[in-house]
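Hi R.,

Here's the chain you asked about this morning:
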Amino acid sequence: MPHSKITGVGMYVPETVVTNNDLSKVMDTTDEWIVERTGIRERRFFKEGEDTVSSMGAKAAQQALERAGKKPEDVDFIVFATLSSDYNFPGSGVLLQRKLPFRQIGAVDVRAQCSGFIYALSIADQYIRTGTYKTILVVGSEVQSNVFEKSDRGRNMAVIFGDGAGAVVVEATDEPNKGILTTKLHSDGRFAEELYLEHPGSRRKERFNPDMIEKGELLPYMNGKLVFMNAVKYFPEVIREALADCNLKESDIDLLVPHQANARITVAIQKEFNLPDEKIVSNIDKYGNTTAASIPIALCEAWEQGRIKDGDLIAIAGFGSGFMWASALIRW
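And here is the predicted structure, written out as tokens:
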């Protein structure tokens, strides 16, 4: 039976760099406060009229395709992970489909937030394992800088998130012991309202009214303490679940690429697995939390830096809104 292998990686981040000191000019915060609590020093913000979720995804996809030695017309299917689609509908997958010379292939959006890229990768993996498709483009892309209020009221979340995109090409392979070995997906909807954006939703007669702006109901909400507690619990658990499924040990991991949620979470995971610095990827200081884009961006940077070599065991894991969490093991 065929299985899947990542053959190309790509990324794109907007040119506009926003530092912590920049944010301190519009809200009551400091560089020291942000770095201590998140590890973030700067992030990228999109340029209106130039960057969109789908256009950033297209740029990351072009790079991934070139590195895989593929053309857009070689792609059989698109899986697009984002919580910030260009439109409420249709999804950004079809908007990406029209930007490059793809055939009239299927495109589906995945809304699994910080775990979105792994959920999307798992979908691609299953399609290839069943023989449905041979070449799939998986994209994670986000524009989040415009959903947060740059004020004291929105400070706790506005300092964390950034914009960007990452992509991988997933292809069928017959190589033994290579490629995506396993994916593990979980959720617990009891905590949905602990990290969410309620409006404009479909639960009320009016999806939007001016009072929502005044009351801050159009702003995301996060119970940061609860998110942190669950993240440091489920990150290690879901990674160990994947290792057990493949009869592998923690010491077999050559590189761990976690979702870039918070530097303190990454440090906690690193200590849990007793990993040296060279075996863990952390770039949150440069990009902030780019949600569904964070893992493919980190994966791409690690590959560009020569940190991923043929035969390496790569572990990726994410946790976030839903609550949803996931992991995957990849033999490069």
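One quick note: The radius of gyration is 19 Å.

Cheers,
M.
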